[in-house]
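Researcher: Here's a chain I'd like modeled. Treat it as a single chain, no partners, no ligands.
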Amino acid sequence: MTNLIDEVTGRARDLVRSLWSELGVDVGAARHDWQAIDLEPLIVFTAMCADARMREKTVAWCAANRHLLSLPRLNRLAIRVGESANKALEPYIAALQGVAAADLQEATTKPDMRVPSLIQLRLRALAGVTARAEVLMALLAEPLRAKSPASIAARVGYGRHALAQALDMLTLAGVTSTHIAGKSVLYRLNRPSDLGQALSGLPGRFPDWVATFAVLGAILTYAREPARKAGAAVERIRADIARIPGATPPPEVTDDASAGAFEQWARRFVADIAGVEPERSTRREVTYTVHRLALGGWIGTVKEEGGQPRPLALSDDPELHPERRATRRLNSDELGAAAEVIDSILYDMQTRELQRHRGSLVPRDAVSGSLLPGMSREFAGQLLQPLHRGQAATFSADFLQRWCTDHRNRLGAAS
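Model: Modeled as a single isolated chain. Structure tokens:
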């Protein structure tokens, strides 16, 4: 079995490579286009685990894009996310202060703010690199839930005064409203869907990267310790792991056997966050492309790895899904037309997944479609509305699968 330090470090680097690739840094494949990225905790954790090449490229990105970053927030989160990162953070801090070498700033790729995962950059373009942008991101993470200032503060990474001022200003502007719950004042977005549209769509998930990187940092620090103390690592992790939805808490450590169980838990946690997918190499990748036609309407195509794209759905084709033709005729608006194509894509994607597990003869009607119309319309509203006529968007089957899972999880949490 791979030793703990090599496995944890390798997977941590895979994770940060993917996240930086979403920001336009050429360090690896991007696999987190469906998750909102949080820059400052990413920088702190990158400093803890990066190799020389990744550090050089990410420092150069920070130097070229320092106007998008918050040095005060970086300093505050460095204390929480990784105490061992202070020395490694020095080149990043120099980049943000504008004192990094000039050659770090040349020919650096600018981030494409239209990418769904870069919602934080769009918020900063709207509200400035301030606590207001981070408050909006924290509220968009769970738009149907009113939150206390304490729960918002855990993600925002600014001081108490800056947070209170941001909440007051957003409430005065009518962007947020307050609700009294016992002795607590809770805050909620007034029109989250309108804000989402103004920001050209939202990603599928808003992970709490502050908490996630704090846990990963504690695991990385533990793996590097010559004399490992699992009990102390569990204590460092306990509060942050509780803030990560769906995460299994680490086991109690009382003896050598339970210390081994903690290490197994740590391996699984890092693998899950890094998005390790053992089955990826054994199946062909499938991608779906949605085209908004110049003359009106939408068409969807499917492409298997090594093959050619083939038409899958056309929004105004009367032969597609005749059993649902009457329902489709009600969707005469552009959003409804786009949703028709997504509906067919989701059917195809789920059928392929079912056939992969049960065999290739599984019939199409074996896929449950009770949630698909609603999911298709929400997907179209989030990810296709920004498309202009003549443009197209491509989604991997993995992305669609994760988006559907997150949609179901959010529906369950809201019910």
